[in-house]
Amino acid sequence: MFLAGATKEEQESMSLGPPESFKYLNKSGVYTLPDTNDSADMDRCRVYILTTISIFLSLLSLSLSLSLSLSLSLSLSLSL
C-alpha cells in the first residue's frame, strides 16, 4: 500500500524504486490486487495519522497548560 500510494516526493526522499526492485515483492510477481486502490488507502491512512497526531498534540498542549496552571496556583498559595 505505501509504495503504490507514496507521493513522488516521498518516493524520492526515501529512495523508493518500483515494486520490481524489492526482493520480497518481486518473488511473487504480484504488485497489485484486484478491487483495491492503494493510493486511496494511503490517503485514508495519511488523514488518520494526521488526525491522530493533531489530537495527541492538542491533548499534550492541554496537559501542559493544566500542569502550568496548577504549578502557578500552588506557588501563589504557598507564597501567601
How would you describe this protein?
The protein is mainly alpha-helical and 80 residues long. It has a single domain (2-79), classed as Orthogonal Bundle (Arc Repressor Mutant, subunit A). Helices cover 72% and strands 0% of the residues. The protein has 4 helices and no strands. The chain has helices at residues 2-5, 8-13, 23-28, 38-79. The radius of gyration is 23 Å and the shape is rod-shaped. The model has no long low-confidence stretch (mean pLDDT 86).
How are the SSEs placed, and which strands pair?
Elements: H1 2-5, H2 8-13, H3 23-28, H4 38-79
What's the overall average pLDDT, rounded?
86
- Topology-level CATH name: Arc Repressor Mutant, subunit A
> Helical region count?
4
Determine the oligomeric state from the structure.
single chain
